[in-house]
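Subject: for your reference before the review

Hello V.,

The reviewers asked for a structural picture of the protein, and I figured it would be easier to keep everything in one thread rather than splitting it across files. Below is the amino acid sequence we used in the manuscript, unchanged from the supplementary table.
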Amino acid sequence: MVEESNHENVEVVIVNNSTLLARSLVCQLIEVGVKDVVLSPGSRNAPLSIALYQASKSGVITLHVSIDERSAAFFALGIAKASKRIVSVVCTSGTALANYHPAVLEAHHSAIPLLVLSADRPARLRKTGSNQTTDQVGIFGSAVTFSADVSEINFDLTAHLDAISAGPSHINLQFDEPLLSDESTHWLANQIEIKAPAKRAITEEITFKEEHAVVIVGHDRAGFSVSEIKDFIAATQLPFIAEDPLSFPDAQAHASLYLGSEENRKKLHCKQVIIIGRTTLSRSINALIAESEFISVIDPRTATIDSLRTADEIFTSLPSVKKKSEDNEWLEMWNAASAESEKVIAGIDDWQEGMIARAIAAGLSEAPLYISSSRPIRDLEAFAKPRSGITTYANRGLAGIDGNISTAAGIAQVHSGATAIIGDLAFLHDMSGLLTARKVKLRIFVIDNNGGGIFSTLPQANVAGFEDIFGTPQDVNLMALAKSFTSDVVEVSNYQELNREIAKPISALSVVIVKVPERNKSAEFLRGTIAKLASL
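And here is what came back from the structure prediction:
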């Protein structure tokens, strides 16, 4: 036990070691610039929970409480994505920490600074059969940039700022009993925030072939800003494909559709492709890359996370461009294919998933937009008309369907409102995320095709037992489920109803169930659309 004195009142307060450790860490969180902390309630993390609550009441941090650990971690991930700051997530001991793992993996592959703080029993109780005690040290393995097992108050978090700014990190805190503390907040006085480390500037040069080169921008942009990439592309004067067409109005429209034709890929054969980030969505785009003669990759993660990635040349920063392309005929070929595809797509009025995604993308006037994995993100890439004015987010690190509602809620927290497009299985997978989402302004469009729609577009679509092991119809009343979390739930089944919901202002949590045709009909529509664009 340690004695602290409040000199003003000449009063002696006995503070236990767990409280001192918790307070020391919270002070250091403030120093390294943490503004938001997401707390998963528990007993062993009581010292930290109390210290964080006191800090939040003093106005130095914002404390969010989420009862489901998996949801809490993805909510923190969403805040970190949108704020571009370190965000901490806090849990008790035992299985609680394991539920953070999916979000940590997503943060690792996306280089998001998610700081996990886990409470633990003292080391002497490990492997003794003590309740809710397991080996939490190093639980995330190589998925974190830094980890530590801490029991002493002299631990210096600020010494590891470079590491915790670069990706997810984990600090395991040994809290011994007693766990409760006094209500004093004088320990928060004179906290100083320090700046995050500046990114190291690397200047490299890229030389591309003047004939038949194209730039392909992955959805996560390798962490670069939209403006940085626009400047790079403007310097090259090359045609470019964007997995996220809502950030780049000059991108090639519907490339993933018309490149599904082998004839079109031959016509637009590339001598060189310059890839920014990862291309993870379309087989047609990856086929174009595979058929090219020279591949350039621009992605900082190749130095750390994706260290075994191969290409003819690799850059860890956006390089300077020696000379812009003067091959106007090549650019005009791509622009002609894009324009012709846009004419075909604009003439389709079928009530189908791809066209629904197009309608939502065109009608939104409020940023940002969160897009879940599987079909929604692919439909936007394929069918949306390129535009600007919307900030988009997606979990493309590992492209899981877990935690999508929670991530969208975190983004809405930062932006004071957001829209999300989520498939029905992803929606069911993160239903507990609606508890957190009730506290923010978030409209969720749920694409309800009663199961795993993406599998109907993949080679396994016709295997025996498809519905049981891939299609997995959920047969759930999504309206009834959603209404248990919010009264603002509607179902739409035509464009008039859909456009009405798109146009509404977002004032709280609302859910729009979008009923779409059977999954096999949607797959047929996709194949038919690609066939219409088979020879441009």
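For the response letter, the relevant points are probably these. The two ends are 78 Å apart (CA to CA). Residues 328-346 form the longest helix (19 residues).

Happy to draft the paragraph if you're swamped.

O.
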